[in-house]
Write a sequence for this structure.
């Protein structure tokens, strides 16, 4: 995964846009609101697509992009600055930013091709093994169509079946190692059985389950034992450039659309459970890689829904697992084949991602595939009755306990109260305290003074209204673009009447009149709007009108502009020419930046087979034409000198 992809995966565009002051409304699977980049409070023409992490204004802006483009446009910074800013927010370390090279891209494609060939290899061995086929058909209840759809296979017993097969077809041992199909032997090993081999097949005598990323590209394999005496029960591909356990969810490539339709994602523990549930018609189901859930995995789901249910078997959801999950020191639990339940970690992710996480437990010690085999509708009822994490923990700890015993009450309260204190919402905290008090049959005031086990979590102090300060206007000593914008504003502040003449000069050059959108900074946009309003009224001097109508937050900035423009070019024509040249410079800089980013988006869309590539291509042509027009206007200005 490239640095850009990692940052995109960790930052939710809905949260990013909302924090920038845009009030978004849910509209189907997307969000709409008023564009933050231009003045229009009548039509919500700004659309955010959580699934793709992109936005677009269908109004005056007619612009769009990803999280990087949004920050670039909102804060007036270049792509590199936006990347570093968002990487800091996402907790992604950037040593030195480099685009994925063609060589690296080709290497990744070769790995995926090898893995696709491996599916065929393992599938051929499956249909030659009646015992494994019988297990999948009769014990797991899978149809031949399902086995074919999910590409299930069988890795034959032996140390070098895959090694011999693929090297005979031109693949090198290093290719097999890089793809995770081959393991390098550590140490001397048993030379008698391995015959001094340095490498051997990673997967032997196992059911093979292809694992794809959310885009459907091959990433690796999950392998389940056939012999119950083998260990571990599940074995995944090792970490490779295209396989990362913490960033993949099994079945997500097939589940994305059903998740959006249901507005709910269900997480189960086993790959074969996912397959059985999809076969039964419950296609909004995914599974982690046999390890504790990560924030990256939850973010992948949040692109399609905020409603997530963890369907846990009794062992994982039971009291021992809950108690283990309440131990913050074990929150990084990540063992091969162990799903884990970390209540505190899940609650923190729920709050950070603004998601709705719930827990559904399986009855009668049954797996999900056994439940749908027994009663297909029972699964829907179990998911519908899923409970919030805190409620699940409370009920699990209280099950089969003597709640009349004061010491038991105290122990349960000491374990649950830290979870409640982790919650960011005061209303949720009060609600759960009341529920805990009712369950333990104690006065709620007794819980307020109860000792809480585990590390205390300090919540941020609420900020009082009087402490909130308006953001300061951009200083004239800021970035080069900001200084040019400020200088243009300073000229028009002193000489508002030049604005109409500037508009005419721009139109003669085949360009649009000056607009607030020509300025990147919100304070500058406000300033130019008031200057234009001063020309549309006749009651007072134009300069005085601007002074009177400026917001208090801009008065210091206005004084800076006057100081900066004390010595203006005395000749009005020369001053007008300078204004035109600077505005055209701003437009060209902005157009060139947009062109660079749009080409980047176009290239990325083409690589992913995204139909928006054609739209980006049209935008590239429009931006190219605009730059050409600006260059022509600049040449005409230069020839006048």
């Amino acid at each position: 995964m490239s640095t850009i992809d990692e940052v995109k995966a960790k930052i939710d565009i809905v949260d990013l846009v909302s924090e920038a002051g845009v009030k978004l409304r849910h509209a189907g699977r997307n969000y709409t609101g008023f564009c933050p980049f231009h003045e229009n409070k009548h039509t919500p023409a700004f659309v955010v697509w959580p699934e793709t992490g992109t936005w677009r204004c269908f109004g005056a802006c007619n612009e769009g992009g990803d999280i990087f483009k949004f920050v670039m446009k909102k804060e007036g910074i270049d792509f590199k600055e936006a990347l570093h800013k968002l990487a800091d927010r996402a907790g992604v370390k950037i040593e030195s930013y480099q685009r994925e090279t063609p060589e690296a891209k080709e290497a990744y494609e070769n790995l995926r091709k090898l893995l696709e060939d491996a599916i065929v290899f393992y599938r051929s061995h499956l249909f030659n093994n009646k015992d494994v086929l019988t297990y999948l058909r009769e014990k797991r209840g899978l149809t031949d169509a399902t086995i074919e759809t999910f590409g299930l296979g069988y890795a034959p017993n032996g140390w070098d079946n895959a090694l011999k097969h693929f090297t005979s077809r031109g693949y090198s041992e290093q290719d097999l190692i890089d793809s995770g199909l081959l393991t390098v032997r550590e140490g001397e090993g048993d030379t008698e059985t391995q015959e001094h081999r340095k490498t051997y097949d990673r997967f032997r005598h196992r059911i093979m389950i292809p694992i794809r990323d959310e885009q459907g590209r091959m990433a690796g394999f999950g392998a389940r034992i056939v012999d119950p005496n083998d260990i571990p029960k599940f074995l995944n591909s090792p970490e490779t450039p295209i396989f990362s356990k913490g960033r993949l969810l099994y079945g997500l490539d097939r589940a994305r659309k059903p998740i959006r339709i249901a507005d709910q994602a269900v997480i189960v523990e086993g790959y074969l459970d996912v397959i059985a549930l999809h076969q039964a018609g419950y296609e909004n189901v995914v599974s982690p890689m046999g390890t504790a859930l990560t924030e990256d995995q939850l973010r992948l789901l949040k692109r399609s829904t905020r409603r997530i249910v963890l369907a846990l078997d009794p062992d994982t959801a039971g009291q021992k697992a809950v108690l283990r999950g309440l131990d913050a020191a074990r929150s990084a639990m990540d063992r091969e084949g162990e799903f884990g339940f970390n209540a505190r970690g899940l609650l923190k992710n729920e709050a950070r991602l603004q998601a709705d996480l719930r827990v559904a437990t399986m009855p009668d010690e049954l797996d999900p595939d056994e439940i749908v085999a027994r009663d297909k509708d029972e699964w829907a009822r179990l998911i519908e009755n899923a409970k919030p994490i805190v409620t699940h923990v409370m009920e699990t700890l209280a099950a089969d306990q003597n709640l009349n015993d004061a010491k038991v009450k105290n122990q349960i309260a000491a374990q649950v109260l830290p979870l409640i204190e982790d919650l960011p919402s005061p209303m949720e905290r009060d609600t759960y305290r009341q529920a805990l008090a009712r369950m333990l049959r104690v006065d709620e005031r007794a819980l307020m003074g109860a000792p809480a086990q585990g590390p205390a979590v300090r919540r941020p102090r609420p900020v009082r209204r009087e402490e909130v300060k308006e953001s300061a206007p951009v200083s004239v000593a800021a970035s080069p673009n900001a200084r040019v914008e400020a200088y243009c504003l300073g000229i028009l502040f002193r000489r508002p009447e030049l604005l109409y003449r500037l508009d005419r000069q721009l139109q003669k050059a085949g360009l649009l009149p000056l607009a607030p959108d020509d300025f990147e900074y919100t304070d500058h946009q406000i300033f130019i709007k008031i200057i234009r309003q001063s020309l549309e009224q006749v009651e007072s001097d134009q300069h005085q009108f601007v002074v009177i109508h400026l917001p208090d937050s801009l008065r210091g900035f206005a004084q800076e502009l006057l100081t900066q423009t004390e010595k203006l070019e005395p000749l009005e024509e020369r001053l007008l020419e300078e204004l035109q040249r600077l505005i055209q410079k701003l437009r060209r800089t902005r157009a060139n930046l947009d062109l660079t980013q749009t080409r980047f988006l176009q290239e990325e869309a083409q690589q992913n087979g995204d139909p928006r590539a054609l739209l980006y291509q049209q935008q590239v042509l429009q931006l190219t034409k605009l730059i050409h027009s600006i260059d022509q206007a600049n040449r005409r200005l230069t020839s006048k000198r």
Observations:
- The two ends are 53 Å apart (CA to CA).
- The domain at 3-90 is CATH 3.90.580.10 (DNA Primase; Chain A).
- The CA atoms of residues 295 and 374 lie 34 Å apart.
- The longest helix spans residues 572-607.
